[in-house]
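Sequence and structure are no longer studied apart. As an example, we show below a sequence and the tokens encoding its fold:
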Amino acid sequence: MRPGARRAPGVATVGAAVFTLIVAGLNLFGARYYLEPRAEQVRDPLHAWLKPSGYLGQSAGIVALAIFLFLWLYPLRKKFRWLAFTGSISKWLDVHAASALGLPLVVAMHAAWRFGGVIGLGFWSMMVVWASGIVGRYLYSRIPRSQAGVELTIEEIGEQRQALLEEIAQRSGLDAAAVEAALDPDPTPTEGLGLWPTFRRMLSDDLRRRSAARTLRREIQRRRPLQRRGDMAALKEVVRLANREMALTQQSRMLGATQNILRFWHVAHRPLAITALVAVLIHVAVVVSVGATWFW
């Protein structure tokens, strides 16, 4: 794949989005019931379906448990190389992240949007891991990688940046040096940044990238006014390539700091995930042992 080429959404991402929309629809369907006081819920016709041990409520709990257990397949894929036949690590990460997308809504539906007792134990433990996963996915995306998920070297990043700059200059009609100057991000050194300063710098880079892309768009429109319908599509493609080039530049400058935080994140995330797994299994064991199910 050439540098800057658009990556089509995977089947897992599309499927997860559809699943999340369905779960969101079910939660909206039960919103009236979820907002009722507990004393009124027991007299509601939907109670047998939407209570935590109800037909839909407990089914949502089973689905949430299945998703949570499935998420543990990703660390197994990373640990054992002989599982390479199941797909690349980058694809597994996409599936891992997509599978967790609608998890909070599924668990909330199971809990009937009440998070006390053993249900709350499982819900909040899952949510801590879910939030930690979002942070990890953001950090992972800040490290330039090939299509196979292999981390790029500084030399490979430089080659991709140069190819992108040349393509942007060719498509926009601007001089390559002018394009590079317009897109050059904050040159402040990043060595020795701590945890929170690194995160602040990452967020600042994201904002600067958007601002620089808007500036480039205005400059192209000033020099080459849009006259045909295809001009707008070409302009959007140039801006997309510019965003990719700036991202590579920012990520290469932040590479050392990002790798340090990612190592720290790995150390913290796994114990959280194990704790959540234990909490969820305790919740399931208690529910089954007391017979609070419609199928047992």
